[in-house]
From TrEMBL:
This is Pyruvate synthase. Keywords: 4Fe-4S, Electron transport, Iron, Iron-sulfur, Metal-binding, Oxidoreductase, Pyruvate, Transport. Residues 36-260 form the Pyruvate flavodoxin/ferredoxin oxidoreductase pyrimidine binding domain. InterPro entries: PFOR_II, Pyruvate:ferred/Flavod_OxRd, Pyrv_Fd/Flavodoxin_OxRdtase_N, THDP-binding, TPP_enzyme_TPP-bd, Transketo_C/PFOR_II. GO terms for molecular function: 4 iron, 4 sulfur cluster binding; oxidoreductase activity; thiamine pyrophosphate binding.
């Protein structure tokens, strides 16, 4: 593919001598990034929710619902899918945006060098966050450090104002004909992403568009008159030549970025240097930090200057291309510097910032600056003035002794363990005899070959202890835990559980405590089923080899929900096709509830979520929910079922069947409608009427598919209880807008889809081969 533009865009109009008209807003970093996206007017945003970056998409959804922008917002099935959406959209020749954090960035990571290597610009906002494991949702830099070798330009935004401004710079830099690369704008998760500040935003849309100019025209698959190949297979020497061009583009960016920053300053009145230098004019001791921590260090530098100490702070606004020459110049007269990294490059004696500053200084034979490397602030640990003073003091000590002491490399802020004190003991394990009480008796019907289940009386089951102890932190009325307790009532023997990330995981395992009295594993949304399937096969292999002896096989259960069957669908289907002896149980609460009720593929049509907002221009989610039970049934599993926490006997019978099949034949899947009063916007105690209405309206039919035979377990039509779907929708705050006269056509469409799916289930129930 030709790397030269077919036609160059006109140069952006020269900024006026006075800054553009602006207005004051009180905004967080995420809100600032969303406002920048609105003002830029992207064509497409591909996204997937992950804390703490999700608010970018949420704010854009609110604005879109009110008609404030017309960006096409496409919710991916996961961050990897969202990255693919963005790549495809950017190939189409428009302006493209994404936002992510932490594992989301890592999940998308293999797509990033694809986009850089094929020279396709876009903008990615990263609210930087700690990388699992263990899971931590607060801010550090361990995510975007992984992306430094992907070929993307990386800009660093230290505060909400910079998060706004640098998005505009990102467009100009990435689209410059000599650069033509995707650009990442990184700001600190929860420090910058959520803290509000007064910022200035543009109040002259025409001037903004003149500043941005038109996107250059490059080859595109949408140009059918000039067909081209994008991402061809390459051998030696083609690939190395491609990377030479990528390296040359980065080198060109070194000259382009300062010029665009200068234009941005003229346009906004706010200066941005490639390397931010604070009180460095005669500094003998310096501190080098990225983003928000540098602002804390500046305050300490002011105080130390008042004491007569010559200290200063350096902080890069650009991490790629790395400002090596700027660091060499800034540190020329500095005796010692402490470099703080909010992430470690394990085993390298420092994080990326430290390693690259040291490498830069090595090329300057006249520079004798002593460098100390410190790892700080991991997992969102605060960096306060006292910490900044320690960094200055350590550098001053090194300067005075003329050697890099105290230690050249160390962690700052870690706490020492206490001698003789180990980990706290967990909850006492639950014994098999405590929970194996014969609450469900499973037999085979000789005539049909299907299983029959006899349950003990419900009152008797209440004596059975749960495998999850009391004391979890779930919201009042949360349906996940009644569901899990019902499941526990009938599962017999030893059970090993894997919880994907979600509400049920978060509220039961806050370190150093746990609510689980059995073996528990966590893995992220996207790979839970694969992880558990590996454990299942290791168990059976060790038994086969005689390395592990059991009287009775344990039951392996994966608990998923909160949208986990979107990002985790691929791994789950892989496990289903391999037919491992395990159970996948999904508590379906119709959204990504653990991150604030964003749109999931399980969210029904027109329902309100924080990324499918309702307003004068939009009525909520714009496509129907995914029928996961039918998807798994099409994998020809031994057993698939749907259930509801509101029908406990039906649910427990099905779980007993599921355990029987999972231990003898292969994978089983169950989808359980689960109440979420917080995000469904109902009263905490409204589970019974709301769930019953969902079932009586036939929106959520109760059925099972046993060896390919579908059996309807409850028919509201024959029971004389069938209700229109509107009767259910009007019971929840998230759907009240659907039953208004203005949305009569939307309601009619929902009713039609419910009727269609219900008719298919009834037809399968009535046909002997379905």
């Amino acid at each position: 593919m030709n790397t030269q533009a077919i036609a160059q865009a006109p140069e952006a109009a020269s900024a006026a001598s006075a800054p553009v008209r602006q207005k004051i807003e009180f905004r967080s970093g995420n809100e600032a990034a969303a406002l920048a996206a609105r003002d830029i007017g992207y064509h497409v945003m591909g996204f997937f929710p992950i804390t703490p970056s999700t608010e970018v998409a949420e704010n854009l959804s609110k604005m879109q619902a009110e008609g404030q922008h017309d960006i096409a917002m496409i919710a991916g099935d996961g961050e990897h899918g969202a990255a693919g959406i963005c790549y495809g959209a950017a190939l189409g020749g428009g302006r493209v945006l994404n936002a992510t954090s932490s594992q989301g960035l890592l999940y998308a990571l293999e797509q990033l060098p694809v986009q850089a290597g094929t020279r396709v610009p876009m903008v990615l906002n990263v609210a930087a966050r700690a990388v699992s494991g263990p899971l931590d949702i607060r801010g550090d830099h361990s995510d975007f450090y992984y992306a430094l070798n992907t070929g993307w330009i990386v800009l660093c935004a230290r505060d909400p104002q910079a998060a706004y401004d640098l998005n505009f710079a990102a467009i100009r830099i990435g689209e410059h004909p000599d650069v033509r690369l995707p650009v990442m704008v990184v700001y600190d998760g929860f420090f910058t992403s959520h803290q509000k500040r007064r910022i200035q935003v543009f109040d002259d849309p025409a001037a903004v568009q003149r500043f941005l100019g038109e996107r250059p025209v490059w080859p595109s698959p949408l140009d059918t008159e000039h067909p081209a190949t994008f991402g061809a297979y390459m051998n030696d020497p083609d690939l190395i030549n491609n990377k030479v061009q990528l390296s040359q583009a980065m080198d060109a960016a070194r000259g382009v970025i300062p010029k665009i920053f200068a234009e941005l300053e003229q346009f906004t009145g706010r200066p941005y240097a490639v390397l931010d230098s604070y009180r460095m004019e005669d500094a003998e001791v310096a501190q080098i930090l990225i983003n928000s921590a540098a602002e804390t260090a500046k305050e300490v530098a002011d105080a130390l200057r008042d004491e007569g100490r010559k200290v200063g702070v350096l902080s890069p606004n650009v991490m790629r291309p790395f400002p090596s020459e700027e660091f060499r110049h800034a540190l020329k007269g500095v005796k010692a510097a402490t470099i703080g990294d909010r992430a470690d490059s394990y085993g390298a004696g420092g994080g990326n910032l430290s390693l690259e500053v040291r490498a830069s200084l090595q090329l300057d034979r006249d520079n004798d600056t002593l460098v100390l490397s410190r790892i700080y602030g991991l997992g969102g640990k605060d960096f306060v003035g006292a910490d900044a003073k320690v960094f200055f003091d350590e550098a001053a000590q090194a300067a005075a002794s003329q050697q890099a002491t105290p230690p050249v490399f160390a962690y700052h802020g870690a706490t020492a363990g206490r001698v003789g004190q180990g980990a706290k003991p967990g909850l006492p394990p639950i014994r098999v005899e405590e929970v194996s009480r014969g609450n469900a008796t499973v037999t085979t019907d000789a005539a049909t070959g299907r299983l029959k289940v006899e349950l003990a009386p419900l009152w008797k089951m209440t004596e059975t202890p749960g495998r999850i102890a009391p004391g979890h932190g779930a919201c009042p009325g949360c349906g996940a835990f009644p569901t899990l307790h019902q499941i526990d009532r009938v599962l017999e023997g030893d059970v090993v559980v894997l919880f994907q990330t979600g509400c049920a995981m978060v509220v039961t395992t806050g370190y150093p405590t746990t609510a689980h009295r059995i073996n528990y594993i966590h893995n992220l949304f996207q790979n839970g089923a694969a992880t558990l399937s590996g454990l299942v096969e290791m168990y059976h292999e060790k038994v086969r080899r005689g390395e592990l002896q059991r009287l009775d096989d344990p039951t392996f259960v994966m608990i998923t929900g909160d949208g986990g069957m979107d990002i985790g669908m691929g791994a789950a289907l892989g496990a289903a096709h391999r037919n491992h002896r395990m159970m996948i149980l999904e508590y379906d609460n119709q959204g990504y509830m653990n991150t604030g009720a964003q749109l999931s593929y399980s969210t029904p049509f027109a329902h309100r979520t924080s990324t499918s907002e309702v307003g004068g221009a939009l009525p909520g989610k714009r496509y129907h929910h995914k029928d996961t039970a039918q998807i798994f049934a099409s994998c020809h599993l031994p057993y698939v079922f749907t259930a509801s926490e509101g029908y406990p006997e039906d649910l427990m019978r099905k779980v007993a069947k599921a355990q029987y099949y999972a231990k003898r034949e292969g994978l089983v899947y169950g989808k359980i409608l689960s109440f979420c009063p917080l995000n469904w916007r109902t009263a905490d105690d409204a589970a019974e009427p709301v769930l019953q209405a969902a079932i009586d309206s036939c929106f959520f039919p109760l059925y099972e598919v046993e060896h390919g035979h579908t059996t309807l377990n409850y028919d509201p039509e024959t029971a004389g209880r069938r209700k229109p779907v509107g009767d259910w929708l009007k019971m929840m705050g998230k759907t009240k807008h659907i039953v208004t006269p203005a949305n009569a056509q939307v309601l009619e469409g929902i009713q039609g889809e419910v009727d269609r799916r219900w008719s298919r289930i009834k037809a399968m129930h009535e046909h002997p081969l379905l």
